[in-house]
Specification:
This protein is an alpha+beta fold.
């Protein structure tokens, strides 16, 4: 049995398309074949072939026609593509169905429908699960949907779908995950086993710690596996990767559903899942996701795209991230402002009257008093310095007086058993905090009132809403939102942000910043704190490397800033227990960690973030003048490169050929640097970083930064970006001294060999005649 359907498609090119998309044929053919002898039902579109077992519905083929590789280990596959979890029925899977059939969808839909039924449940005799599989017309992807019928008044707690068991092993595998900015590991199968050889499970929640709803397993010489959702409402789900056997690797998405009775005795995911193949690495996966993501409302409605970000934010040349009273925050910023000669903004922690990670949300009054605090802000404004202040947007300290006096426990997030799950961050006091539910009007009013007081009464320029890019499942039936899954968290945050801005209508519009980066928050936040450029400083050597996954998709849709890049030991809150305080506050780090500091600054520069320095003190201008000079150089060069590094689109990363070096690294975040002391390890890195950018006027530039103490002449190959290059033109070097023509562009397979001074920072702009 075979059917063939021809569809005329459009060749979509342009700034948000990958090179592979530009080369698509205009005529795509869907073919469904079911050879009787193999009992394999197949769908194909010329770029991907999907094969399903005709007797069970198991996924046994996911074939990339370019490499001719099957990404599923069909010899090992025994699991079904879905799993339902019920309160009363337990776990329901395809293996429990006594009946299965597969049939084509209507001809204009071009796909297959898989049906499982007769599960043998006395209270759910007619339960039926249907999965629809279709092929996309212009991408190497298949699209999957699931619906459950005849539920008899019950709802699944969660649905695991699709389950991709036994992903075929290939040489050189790399797993890329958009954990906020993004991270990648070169040894996923090895890391999925613990020291005793037992399988591990990684799970990342969306929306939240997972900034985009996709995963990518790439290989250098084969086909990569890509999985993504097209949910635009922010439903709760987890992307999971887990081991099995000696080298097994499995993928699945766990969808958390609302705890409610189905209105029509059925439930279906209100979005679909894409499963497919791609050629290349994490960036090619990002462009595949980008071709869909940047056409969604959160991109067009982002505050940057709508011109709503306060002008002082986009004009900021450098952030100073300091903590404590104004003497240790505003005065250092003024000193650095005089040295740089460009606008500086302050990211101000520990201004509040409560101890950090203990007394939230008792922020007011400021710990140094309202009058001195306002005077310090006024002094900052006189020097063209703006300040955003820390206010965690979901934690309430459970040992505070206000927790008891205001009955806050009623509005805290509850687990499925109805209990609060305390969160402990402060390693000195071990004080518990509770996460407040964003679905409650009480918490939104409480937080908005505090934020407006800080803006209207104290005169701060913005609020840093810590833990903003996160969402939780709440099961409290008294909160008025669906229990468990749903979209109430994102709706609640939208109402909170709009309320803050509405209440501040008579003031200067405050900037709203949040921790991490995530697509759902682009229309709500003016700034996103992207700390992953300093990942080693808080995560240590864990087998993962940071990648600009999110920036490759959404860079022109938001402003990104922040890192832990610091030349000192971490500060200590004066309101914490005195016995744990360091003998020398903000002790200068050993110079051997200088290259780690430079690496963090270089990543932020080439990846298009606003530069940030943490724990800056004026004495660093003389004691660590080389490192500070590098930060100032980054800020000055970036200032000349805003069309690329603030408004540009990231292009295929150039290949940088330069001998790698091993440098000392410190693991040293706020708490890691105190009790346990500094943790040291070594890491092999490239001393030259580079990224390619496309400006709104369609010109191209390569951002380059060297962290070496020696002169270097790296080879920078742009062969993968040839689609964007002019046939002939000039290479213009832009640095802190100005602009200089340094070479010619000839042809489209470009190789650059810039002369880089020690600790050099520049932009290589490719201009047409």
């Amino acid at each position: 049995m075979a059917r063939t359907q021809s569809i005329v498609g459009r060749n979509w090119g342009g700034a948000f398309s990958g090179r592979r998309l530009a080369a698509l044929p205009l005529i795509l053919v869907f073919a469904w074949t079911a050879p009787a002898e193999s009992r394999i039902e197949r769908l194909a579109n010329g770029q991907l072939q999907v094969g399903l077992d005709g007797t069970s519905g198991q996924l046994i083929e996911l074939i990339d026609p370019i490499s001719k590789r099957n990404l599923i280990d069909s010899k090992s596959t025994t699991s079904g593509v879905w799993e339902l979890h019920f309160e009363d029925l337990g776990i329901v899977s395809p293996e429990k169905a006594s009946a299965f059939d597969i049939s084509p969808l209507a001809q204009d839909q071009g796909g297959l429908r898989l049906r499982w039924s007769q599960f043998g449940f006395p209270t759910a005799r007619d339960l039926r699960v249907e999965v629809d599989v279709r092929m996309e017309t212009n991408r190497p992807l298949s699209r999957w949907g699931i619906a459950v019928h005849n539920l008899n008044g019950r709802m699944p707690r969660l649905i695991k779908f699709p389950v991709l068991p036994d992903v075929a092993a290939q040489a050189g595998e790399r797993l890329a995950v958009p954990v906020w900015l993004g991270q990648e590991t070169a040894s996923p199968r090895t890391q999925l086993l613990d020291s005793q050889g037992n399988p591990r499970r990684w799970e990342w929640s969306y929306p939240g710690i997972l900034s985009m709803q996709c995963l990518a397993l790439s290989t250098p010489d084969g086909a990569g596996l890509y999985i993504a959702c097209d949910d635009t409402a922010g439903h709760l789900k987890d992307f999971a990767v887990f081991g099995g056997g000696e080298t097994g690797l499995n993928l699945e998405i766990v969808h958390e559903l609302e705890r409610r009775a189905p209105s029509d005795d059925r439930c279906a995911l209100p979005y679909s899942v894409s499963v497919g193949a791609f050629q290349g690495g994490w960036f090619e996966a990002a462009t595949l996701y980008r071709s869909w993501a940047t056409n969604q409302t959160w991109a067009g409605d982002s505050r940057l795209r709508r011109g709503l970000v306060p002008s002082w934010v986009t004009n900021t040349a450098l952030w100073v991230w300091n903590r404590g009273p104004s003497s240790g925050v505003i005065e250092p910023a003024i000193a650095l402002r005089k040295e740089l000669g460009l606008p500086i903004s302050v990211f101000w922690h520990w201004w509040h009257g409560c101890a950090y990670d203990v007394g939230f949300p008792e922020y007011l009054p400021p710990r140094e008093g309202e009058a001195p605090f306002k005077a310090a802000l006024q002094r900052a404004h006189e020097h063209d310095i703006h300040a955003i202040v820390y206010m965690n947007q979901r934690l309430w300290g459970m040992t505070t007086a206000s927790w008891t006096n205001e009955g806050a426990i009623r509005f805290a997030v509850k687990a499925a058993d109805g209990q609060v799950r305390p969160e402990v961050y402060n390693t000195f006091t071990r004080s518990p905090c509770a996460s407040m539910c964003m679905g409650t009007e009480f918490w939104r009013n409480k937080y908005a009132g505090l934020a407006v007081s800080a803006v209207g009464q104290l005169g701060v320029d913005g609020i840093y809403m810590d833990q903003a890019c996160s969402s939780l499942a709440c099961f409290d039936p008294r909160h008025g939102h669906p229990q468990g899954g749903g979209t109430y968290w994102m709706k609640g945050f939208k109402m909170l942000a709009e309320d803050i801005l509405r209440r501040c209508a008579t003031c200067d519009v405050p900037a709203l910043a949040g921790e991490g980066c995530a697509e759902n928050w682009l229309p709500r936040l003016d700034l996103m704190l992207s700390l992953q450029v300093s990942r080693e400083r808080y995560a240590g050597p864990d087998g993962w490397d940071v990648i600009p996954f999110f920036h490759a998709v959404y860079h022109p849709c938001g402003i990104f800033y922040g890192n832990y890049s610091s030349l000192t030991m971490p500060p200590y809150d004066e309101l914490w227990p005195a016995e744990f305080a360091p003998k020398e506050p903000l002790e200068i780090l050993d110079r051997k960690f200088s290259q780690q500091f430079l690496l963090e600054q270089a990543r932020a520069f080439v990846w298009g973030q606003q530069p940030t320095i943490a724990n800056f003190t004026p004495r660093q201008l003389s004691e660590r003048d080389d490192e500070i000079a590098f930060v100032l150089r980054v800020a000055k060069v970036r200032r000349q490169a805003l069309p690329y590094l603030q408004n540009g689109i990231m292009l295929t990363p150039p290949a940088v050929e330069v001998p790698q070096v091993e440098i000392p690294m410190s693991r040293l975040s706020i708490y890691a640097g105190q009790r346990g002391g500094l943790k040291e390890f070594k890491k092999v890195v490239a001393p030259v970083l580079a990224a390619a950018w496309l400006s709104p006027d369609k010109s191209i530039a390569i951002a380059v930064a060297s962290i070496s103490d020696e002169e270097l002449r790296p080879l920078i190959r742009l062969h993968d970006a040839a689609f964007w290059l002019p046939d002939r033109g000039t290479v213009c070097r832009i640095d802190e001294r100005g602009r200089t023509d340094v070479g010619q562009v000839v042809g489209t397979n470009l190789v650059l060999r810039p002369c880089l001074a020690p600790r050099d920072v520049c932009l290589l702009r490719l201009t047409r005649p």
